[in-house]
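Fresh eyes needed here. Have a critical look at this protein's tokenised backbone.
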Amino acid sequence: MIRRSGILLASLAVLSLASPALATISYTPARPNIDQAVTFNISVGFGSVDPGSVLWRFGDGATASGQIMVQHVFGRIGTFTVQCHYYHAFSVASGVWVDEETALTVVEDRSVSAKPSNPQVNQAVAFTAVNFLSASIRWSFGDGTPAVMGGAAINHAFTRPGIFVVAARDKGGAGLVDITATVSVAVDISRRSIAFAPAMPVARQPVTFTAVNFYTTDIRWDFGDGTPAVSGGPTSTHAFVATGLYTVQAWDWNGLGGGPTSITIRVEQPTGPTAPFQIFFLQLRFEDGLSYKVVPRGFAGLTAFADIKYEGTGLFQAQWLVDGMPFQTASQALPFAEATTLNSGRIPALPTSMTGMHEVSLRILSPASTLTMPIIRYFVSAETGTPPLRGLNLQVATVEGLKGVASELRLDSLRIPAGTYFILNGSVTYAQAAPIRYGLLRIHLGDDLADQQILRDLKPAETRGFTTSIFNPTPEGKFIYITLYDISDPNAPKLLYLKKIAILPND
């Protein structure tokens, strides 16, 4: 449609030439997309268009002027009326002002696909930008993670459940609109479970619950007994006041991530023959009641004992461990009682063929137990038979603490602050008839070898001094073991002396 206004200064003959359409507005592409540049051009069949007179109106509020050919980008879909106002000159002295207009439709053909569209938590989702105008796209996944630059294909995994709007912006993020897709992320509740110990809970005694195969360590717990829900980690401990059935629930993401996982437990009375079978006290010892023993290599019949206090009745199953490895299996039906004593057995007895320090412990298999297992130790010396400990005197004369820390040796015990070094000054007086060509003095702090020294040509009635420095790392009580070996025959070393000094906690 053409609208004309103005005064013609030419003749009627010239006016007759103006009766056909004066101009045409053309544009490309014919079906533009949002964010796509549209080129407009005004052309006339005769005469000319004064560029300085051109004013473009694009129908979306935007304008441009001074150009016969112009580009414009539309930011929304719809049909727009584009107008061009210009001066159409027929000659130098004549012309007319003209308004031209045309209509075009702007579409949105871009989309984002997601496969799968309903993923599980932590499952990779493949996103594809379809019909985009460029290969540089700014991706935002709607889950709080930072936006990233990428191409037309990108993968992303969501770490929590929910409905997320994924947005892709064309032209490296410079596009006018986001192209979105909605992803519903679900939780596979079937993979999660709740474990608890002891297996048969009793009233007023703690029960430990563990969230198994949960997605996070941020767990909300509800114990089903009317107490307030608590926020914690994958393990939570709770004591039920009364007997009964309780439904315990646990939520991932502190309750913000889908439904709960539940388990129903029965809480029984804490005492009596019908009480749940559980171990509530365990102590390890050797036959003499001590937790440490020194035996020669090849010693026969070394046995460990476990003093157990339990509630209820059931089958007790455990493994004796030596140096962390299974050694002997214990299985015994325990009738209703309060205490019993088990032993590691004399056939086979605890191994004494390897010299050095060894640890003995117990691993309870049934009933389930949360007790911290104690450890007892025995030291196997290098000699066989009974050590000849007479005819030798080993003394620790003084103990010097570094950095002004003083310690005093009294009755084979001393106090040393944790985290400090100290120096032992001592002497060895050899009183046997036969000389020793090579003696080996070894000093252990607990299980760790702190120092060792070779004493050459040790003669009868001779006294040799020694000095060693030891670091006390922790405040817990421990022992210093000072041993002297005759290693003149390397194939048959003999233990001559063993001295034990207790390091007491520095109260």
Q: What stands out?
A: The first helix runs from residue 12 to 17. The CA atoms of residues 334 and 366 lie 11 Å apart. The first strand starts at residue 2 and ends at 5.
